[in-house]
Structure formats: structure tokens, C-alpha cells
Amino acid sequence: MCDLRHVLLSGGYFTGSGEIHLKRAIITVVLCLLTGVWRQAQAGTLGQSAQNLLLTGVGPNASGDGVSQVTWGACSFDGTNTNCTLSGPFTGLGPGGTYDFVLSYPGNGSTPLTATTPPGSDLFTLAFISSGSLTFTFNESNGTSLSFHSLNFSVFYIPGTFSCTGNPSDCGPGGVGDTPGATETGPVNGSFDLTPTIQTVISAGAYGGFTSIAPATWIEIYGQNLALTTTGWTGDFQGNNAPISVGGTTVTVGGESLFIDYVSPGQVNGQVPSDVASGSQQVIVTTAAGSSAPFTINVNPLEPGLLAPPSFDINGTQYAVALFSDGFYVLPPGLISDIASRRAVPGDVIMLYGIGFGPVSDNTLAGVIDQAANQLNATLDISIGGVSAKIQYAGLTPGVVGLYQFNVVVPNISPNDKTPLVFSLNGTPGMQTMSLFIGN
After folding, report:
1. Across residues 394-420, what is the average pLDDT?
2. Contact yes or no for 6/193 (Cβ under 8 A)
3. How are beta strands 341-342 and 329-330 bridged, if at all?
4. For the CA atoms of 235, 239, 242, 245, what is the dihedral angle to 10 degrees?
5. What is the DSSP letter of 411?
6. Which of 49, 84, 217, 296 would be 75's cystine partner, CB 3.0–4.6 Å?
């Protein structure tokens, strides 16, 4: 009986908005000949495809693995791209329906996919050798359509319906791949697994991206199948209370519900509940397809970070995001097009923003829109250019969920476009290295 394997899509990166852009793609797909009884162990079943999958032997590579070119279902050219489709029925997700697994690549040339099979194996890996993409779409019978760019799945040739040409040593991926010009073709069926998988959890990346978190801080969860859609929390509030379910995704941290503001198949953002205990805690993501294996993360009482995103890394120097009350950024004028900015000077009041700084005087809890000014319970010190700065306000930002605001007076220091900005909370120094643009 064939082993079940999965697809791995790598080489993507996430923007701050949660969008994913693929720089390159290496996809590991495992297919095999079904020679015995297959016991379905995944979240859903793919029925027989309406199109054939075709392997055409290229010959062995330097390692002795058989290599084949892969034609993914039925293909057509739309004048710009070639689109190849494997489609059929599915069950195990909602009411079931039909699937479309579409390979798309530029031009009208040969397929950009090759399959590599180790000697003696019916399993092979599938990789892009030039630009292309795979999209996995499930069209549910109730009208819902779900699409993914990565998916755990296995597909199998249907016994008795595949055929070979070219006299390979055996009619399978290995024999065909070792024999230039030999082919193996036929419809496929198989399985898919939409169960969430957590790869990592960090505090919000724009605020330090720490590997430990804290109660009421914001976190980012990365992985696969974390949601069956991409959406934010607009319209999901109940009064002043943030939602704990968005797009059908829920998350627990230490058994307590995360307040979620964004979900996608690869990323979930949310605010940790206030009553999560310190120490090692488990993060679990749940969707309609099931629950992830627990991801263990350390929870500290405080895990402070100031807003200093990668976009404010300028020529190798990380700058904090600082604003004046008129909305101007603390940056040299014209440094970033379409951004109103000026340098701060001694005596100016600038606003800094943070997460993970702990409880406040009015005990506003996580997941609640802050209603009024309050005061940070912990002792905060902020130094600019080595001089302790006067803090006019240190508390949550009214009208926002879980965002701290610090109104700080720039001390009497010399101009410097790389003026160090440091802070400490209850005497413990922050872990970020940041600067500000200070003029005169």
C-alpha cells in the first residue's frame, strides 16, 4: 500500500497586511500507484478526475532518480497563459462538491513541472522548473468557493485505468522516469487535508516580532490551512467587544479565546486574552476542517515592543514610527513620497505606539475598544539620545483595541539623524534597537 504524503509550497513571504507574494515555488507532491486497499486517513476525498495526468520520461538524473515531465490534466492557451486543470467531485468538506486544481504558466510552451522518483519507489516529488502556479479550488454544492495556493493532498492513479507506452522497465513513475519518451497516463483520485498546521507564533512583527508573548498583546500565527478564507474583523464586533471567530476560524491560547482581527490560509492575527497564565502555553487553531496540533509558546507577564516595522529600516538603521499631533511623521521631509514629515526638535511632543506593556489603571481588558484615557500600571522610562524624556501620556489609545500610546517630549539634545531611542519597563530594558530623526 502506498504511503500518504503532502504538498509543501515554499518561498513565500507575507506583507504586513497579510498578503502573500510568491518569490519562487518548490512543490512536493507525492503520487503513487494504488496496488492494494487504500484506507482514507485525510480530511476529505477527491473523486476520479475528469482529465488524465500524464508523465513523460526524461531519463535519470545525476543521482539516479527517474525524471518525468508532467502534463497536469487538460490544457488550453488563453493568449497569455496556459491553464491546465484536474477536476472532479469531492467529499469531506462542507456539503461536498467539485474541485478544480489548476496549473497556470506563461506562454504556450511545455509544462514547467517535472516529477522525480527515487529508484524502486512509486512516489515522486513535483517541482516547478520555470514560472508557474497551482491553485486548488473547492466549489461546494451550496455555492461557496474556496481557493488555496498550498494544500496538503495526495493523488493516486486509479487501478486498471492508467496505461503506459514506450516499454519502460515498469509501468510506474520510476520506470517511466528512467525511460526517455516513455509515458504513463490516466485519471486520478486521492485525498486532501485542510486541517490547520501551525508553523510559528510571534508577537506582532511590526512591534519586534518576539518569540515570547504576553497577555493582551498582539500576535501573528503562521502556518497552513489556518482559515478557509481571507478576511478581517470588519462588522464582526458586538458593541465594543472584538470577535473571537472570524471567517470560521477560532484560536485558543492557554485554553482562552484569542480576539481575532485577520485570517487567511497562511496567517492569523489577534490579541491574546488578558487572563492567560504565564509560562508555557498551547496555541491551537480550529476551523471547520478540525483543530491544529498544539503549538507551545512562552507567555511572560510583559513583552513590550514599540512600533518599528521593517518598512522603517532605512539604509540599515531601524527607526521607530513617531508622529506629531498634526499627523506628520518624524522623518526628514520628502524621505518617503506622499508622506508628510519633518524632523523632531527639542521641546516637540511626539507620539510613539506599542503593544505588550501590561495592565492599565482602568483595567481595560483585551478585546475591548478602549473608551477613555488611562495610565500604564508599570513604570516606563523612555530615553532619546541618552537623555530621559518627559512622558506626558502612557496608556491605551482611546477608540482602539490593545494599542498603547506614549506622548513624549523630545529632550534638549543635539541634532542627529540616528538618535538612539531606548525604553525600559519596570527597570527591564526593551529588546529593540531603534533611532529617531532629530533636527534643530
Report:
1. 97
2. yes
3. parallel
4. -60
5. P
6. 84
pLDDT digit string, tens, across residues 99-142: 999 999 999 999 999 999 988 777 888 889 999 998 999 999 99
Tell me the per-residue pLDDT of 307-366, one tens digit each, with 9 for 90 and over. 999 999 999 999 999 999 999 999 999 888 888 999 999 999 999 999 999 999 999 999
Cell match 485554553: residue? 255
User: What does the pLDDT look like over 5-26, one tens digit per residue?
Assistant: 222 222 222 222 222 222 222 2
Euclidean distance between CA atoms 402 and 398, whole angstroms:
10
As given in the structure block, the three cell numbers for residue 323 are: 508622529
The values of phi and psi at residue 4, to 5°, are -90, 135
Give the cell for residue 392. 506626558
Q: DSSP class of residue 144?
A: -
pLDDT of residue 237: 82
Which residue spans of the chain are classified as CATH 2.60.40.10?
A: 197-299
Alpha-carbon dihedral of residues 291, 292, 294, 299, nearest 10 degrees? Answer: -90
Q: List pLDDT tens digits, range 173-220.
A: 889 999 999 999 999 998 888 889 999 999 999 999 999 999 999 999
Contact 54, 70 (CB under 8 A): yes
Judged on CB neighbours under 10 Å (0-12, 13-18, 19+), 15 is exposed
Burial of 33 (0-12, 13-18, 19+ CB in 10 A): buried
358/402 Cα distance (integer angstroms): 10
Residue ranges of E strands in 73-207: 74-77, 81-91, 97-106, 113-117, 125-128, 133-140, 145-148, 152-157, 163-165, 183-186, 188-193, 197-203
CB 370 within 8 A of CB 393: no
Grid cell digits, residue 194: 485542510
Coil, strand or helix at 205: helix
Homologous superfamily of domain range 197-299: Immunoglobulins (2.60.40.10)
Exposed, middle or buried: residue 309 (CB in 10 Å: 0-12, 13-18, 19+)? middle
| Cβ neighbours, 10 Å, residue 24 | 9
State the pairing for strand pair 305-306/313-314. Answer: unpaired
Nine-digit cell at 162?
492508467
